[in-house]
Structures are given as C-alpha cells and as structure tokens.
Amino acid sequence: MSPDNTSDLPELWSHVPHTHLRYRAGDKVADIDAEATPGFTGSKSDAPALMAERNERFAGLQEMLYANSRSGDHRSVLLVLQGMDTAGKGGIVKHVVGASNPQGIQYKSFGKPTPEELSHHYLWRINKALPAAGHIGVFDRSHYEDVLIVRVHNLVAPNVWGARYDEINAFEQDLVDAGTTIVKVAMFVSLAEQKKRLAERLDRPDKYWKYNPADIDERLKWPRYQEAYQAMLDKTSTAYAPWYIVPCNRKWYSRLAVLELMIEALKSLDLKWPPANFDVDAEKKRLAQA
Amino acid sequence: MSPDNTSDLPELWSHVPHTHLRYRAGDKVADIDAEATPGFTGSKSDAPALMAERNERFAGLQEMLYANSRSGDHRSVLLVLQGMDTAGKGGIVKHVVGASNPQGIQYKSFGKPTPEELSHHYLWRINKALPAAGHIGVFDRSHYEDVLIVRVHNLVAPNVWGARYDEINAFEQDLVDAGTTIVKVAMFVSLAEQKKRLAERLDRPDKYWKYNPADIDERLKWPRYQEAYQAMLDKTSTAYAPWYIVPCNRKWYSRLAVLELMIEALKSLDLKWPPANFDVDAEKKRLAQA
C-alpha cells in the first residue's frame, strides 16, 4: 500500500469525523449521547475488517512521519486522551495506537503527580513527555487533569486553576507553532455504561487490577466532572488545537473514530517519502564493490 | 485465552528456542549459518498464522506482567537487540514487540551518543532507559555498542573498552537481582543477504530513509565486527543474562524465534492475575448504590 494524501475515507462514514466530531461553541456535555455513532453508517460487524484496513493506513502514514524526521523534518503528532474511568482510553492505546510501530510512539500515562512532579509547575511533566520529531506522542490523561480532577477536588484555589485555561492555550499554541499537530479527544461514556464496565471489573479476576475503589468516588462526582469537562471544552477548544467529542459506549465506534482522527491528522501533514540525502547511483556503485 | 505457565510451544518447533539458540562456550560467530532456521520444522508459509497466534499469547502475558506491577510486583523484562545493519532489529520491534500494548512497552533506540551522553559514563543513558516495573523495555542497540562499534573504531583505548565486559556483567547482575529478566538477542545476517537488503533500500524511494552511506563503511569492517561480536558473546553470555544467537536471513524465522524467547521469558516469571487489593463484595455493594 502506498500512502498518499487523497481522500480515502471509507464509505461507511457519511460524515468526516474530524469535522463532524469537532466541538462547536455551544455544544453541551449534558446533551452528548454516549450511545451514538455519529457519522458512521455501518455497524459493529463492519468494525473488525475496517479497523484492520485503517490500522494499516495509519501505520503507513506513521512510518512516513518517522522517515521524514530522519531528514530534518521536526513535525510530530500528539494524541491527548481524556475521559472518565472506563471510557476506554486503554482500549484506544491498545487497538488504535498499538497498530503502529513502537519505534515511532511515545506513550505516557499521567497519574497522580509524584512528589517530584508536584514540586514543579504542572506543565513540567507534560513538557518532559512531548513527542520528539517524527514521533506520535500519546497522552493517557494529560495537562487537562489540572483543570479536571484538580478543579473538582479543589486541589488548588479557583484562581489558580482558573488561570490554567489560558495558560494551556498558550502552551498548545507554542507546540503547534513548533510543528506538533495536536489531536485532543474527549471520550464520553454514560453513567449506566460506566456502571456496567466497573461491574465487569469486579466480576472477573483477570480485571481486578483495573479496578480502583476511588473510581466510585469519582463517579459520585459526575455532575461536577460534567461542569469541569464543559469548561474545558468551552475554554480550550481552539482553532489550532480543537477538541473532538467521541461517544464511547460502543467501543468499536470510538476506536474507529479516533483512528480516523489520527489518519486525518497525519494526512494533513502532506507527507511524502523523503528524497535521498545521498547520491543514489554513487552508493549503488559503492555497494556493488563492497 | 487464559495465559498460564504450562508448556505450549507450538509443534512446529522441534527444539525449544530458549535452550537451542542459547550461546554455548566455544560457539564461533564465523560458523553461524544465517540462512538456517534452527529448531523450527515449519516453513515460511506457516509463519503468518503462527505469528498471529503467538503474538496473542505474548500480549496476554505482557498484560499480566503489567497488571502485577499495579500490585507492587517490581519485575520487568528487557529485550536487548544487537545486530549489524539490516539484520532486522526494526522488524522485530514492529512485528514482535508491536503486537503488545504500547502502554507496557518502553522502546529506546541507541544511536550515536549525544554530547550530553558523551559527557557521562556510557551506562548513564542506558540506566535512564531501563524499564519500569511491569514494563517490557526494548533496546534497539544498547550498551553493547560500547564494546562493538567503539572497539572496531578505536573510539576509546583498548584498556577502556577491555574493562567494559566485566563492568557490563556486573551491571546486568544488578539488574537481574533487582527483578529484570534480560533477553539478549544477537542477530546475524550474512554478508550476501546484507548486500541484497542494502540494494533494496537503494532501489526503493520509500526505503531511502533507511539507508545511510556509513552502513557500507561498517560493512567493510565485517571481519573486525565478527571479532567484536565473538568477544561480546564469549565474555558477556552469563548464566543470569545469556545471549541468544538468532540467524536472520529469513525474517519470518527470526521474528518467530524472538517471539518465543520473549514468551518463554514471561512464562518463567510464573505470572498469575494479581488478587484484588480491595474487598470485592463490599465494592460490588458500593457500585450498586453509586
């Protein structure tokens, strides 16, 4: 398969995810139907074959991004995954990101900050994990925790977290200016579906490790998280780094959608295989004699 | 599929790779047949289905390793890949490591040291890249470059690189003592096959980026590299961190072989799903009411 930049969105998509799922001013978190499959006309049974095909497309583009960095191209891509527990961030990492070459992936999960991290500015640990040229960075949670869990739990004063929205926008503007394409995915699962998923973790000994009693504490703060997500979308969805709203009750849909968002991000870089930075014929002769 | 620790080596293997491919005192690099497929009775046509099946097994075990780290298990696995250019290190990363969840993988490629790296001890950058608990670290080249390219090019005095074998052994002993299982893979491609693979990179514009004129300079030093590899095997294949010799002219074979080495390493940890570190029934009740 020879990756190129022409439109190749599969016909099962009636609407292009990167425009259709993009947050628009006025969108309300309370109105999101987590069960929906916006823009997709197919069904679950279409997903496996489509995932396989588009994973290959993604992997081809990722290799091209990586290849270009060897010739001095400084661009990179950053996937930011935010969502409540069980929204399926791990599944995106495994099934979407996992399809590409580990060589070009920089994955980072942001948990509770360590004492060292807390002793720095909240963007310190974020900066350290930014993708190198040619790489796809994947943030499993991110700097947005600093306006989500931090806001909900009052971990810092309101004027402190309140100032972060502008700060994050400025930070992301710098990243974009430096050549990073940012894909911010807000993943929404319904309260009922979350209950089902947490119950499954409690029913299966091979899932216990994914369960954390604190998840229920967070669940009980759902309305406050909705507010915090709403503010995050309203204040940090910018032209240069927009949020995408992905309904996640159907895992197969959310994975297909994020996969298309990533493909589109890579296609927007208008990548080509880099030209040789050596004399091909001369090298052929050297090799023949070596 | 429920991973367990019983022997499940596919029948197409007549000999267990982790004993059959292990370096033995007296093994000579000059005698290695890079074309061979030691221990494997199948053929190339068997490879795709077998890779898919064993990749799944590998991914299952990797998840279990990761899961255990959440309950305080500090163990990790480190795959060290060494080989001449075109031996197929990248293919191992893509097709073997790539089958597992990026969440649990720490990939690091060691190229020419940066000025900062050079200002430190040669193990400084190695230490920084060691896998965290529950992770599989992948070294694409490694500290062994410090007794390979460094030795061949006389980048430091002989007494300096000469002291490194013992130092590396002590370093690896510490890692093993701290809970890291080290899988060291020496990949061997023949001179003729290397020529073919370099020629392909020069024939295909989508492969130019993998070509480096310096590869031919290294190729011309083949006999000196053979000496350096021989010394590396003789001096650093220890009971606690043995080298495995993998013939790599047939990519499908080398990938299957390394995959089995990794599966075996994970099986040797005798992993089980970690027990719940919370009261399952109490949490079920809390969830029902949440």
Query: What is the terminal separation of chain A in angstroms?
Result: 32 Å
Average pLDDT for all residues of chain A: 95
Biggest interface: A-B, 44 and 44 residues
What is the highest CATH level, the class of chain A? Answer: Alpha Beta
CATH architecture of chain A: 3-Layer(aba) Sandwich
- Please write the string of helix (H) and strand (E) elements of chain A: HHEHEHHEHHHEHHHEHH
Query: CATH homologous superfamily name of chain A?
Result: P-loop containing nucleotide triphosphate hydrolases
Number of domains of chain A: 1
Helix percent of chain A reads 40-55%
Low-confidence stretches of chain A: 1-5
The CATH topology label of chain A is Rossmann fold
The rounded Rg of chain A comes to 20 Å
What is the number of beta strands of chain A?
5
Q: How many distinct helices of chain A? A: 13
Strand content of chain A: 5-15%
**Oligomeric grouping of the chains:** homodimer
Shape of chain A: globular
Largest sheet of chain A: 5 strands, parallel
As laid out across the biggest beta sheet of chain A, the strand order is: 2-3-1-4-5
Keywords (chains A, B): Kinase, Transferase
Domain Polyphosphate kinase-2-related (chains A, B): 51-268
Protein name (chains A, B): PPK2 family polyphosphate--nucleotide phosphotransferase
GO molecular function, one term (chains A, B): polyphosphate kinase activity
